[in-house]
Amino acid sequence: METRTVLATLRLPGRADSLRLVRALVREAALGRGAGAEWANDLVLAVDEACQNVVRHGYGDGARVGDMVIELAADAEGLCVRVTDFAPPVDPAKIRGRDLADVRPGGLGLHLMRSLTDECAWEAPPPGAGNVLRLCKRWPGGARAGDGMGEQR
């Protein structure tokens, strides 16, 4: 992506009750930039899955507590969301999504994040942070923000 404009940065507790605010922020940022509802919903779902993973796996054992930082940025190509946590670092090479043929609840977050965005990548965390996941979604058809993206995908 070219030069990005940070639209919002939000630091909140890494708990399930914070996810509603994250979803609303991402949805409003996408719609405010001219995205169609379906496009916005896809990005919201991907970011929600990332944040749920922080809550469940990063802080989920009950002994750990911490925050999440959500940063939304836009450029002419689309929107990017960075999810930063302060949980113990994970090794991205060891993170595997479950085989889709294995029908049972859970384990599909990584698959959803990758299929709903154009970029799903871990970044080196800044000092003091545990993990940073970047999710980017390009405007459909190479359209720029506000170019009548409508309901395209």
Notes on the structure:
The chain is α+β, with helices and mostly antiparallel strands and about 150 residues long. Helices cover about 30% and strands about 25% of the residues. The protein is built from three helices and five strands, in the order E-H-H-E-E-H-E-E. Strands 1-2-3-5-4 form a five-stranded antiparallel sheet. Helix 1 packs antiparallel against helix 2 and helix 2 (about 35-60) runs antiparallel to helix 3 (about 110-115). The radius of gyration is 15 Å and the shape is globular. The two termini are about 20 Å apart. Residues about 145-153 have low confidence and may be disordered.
Features:
3 helices; disordered C terminus; alpha+beta; 25% strand; 153 residues
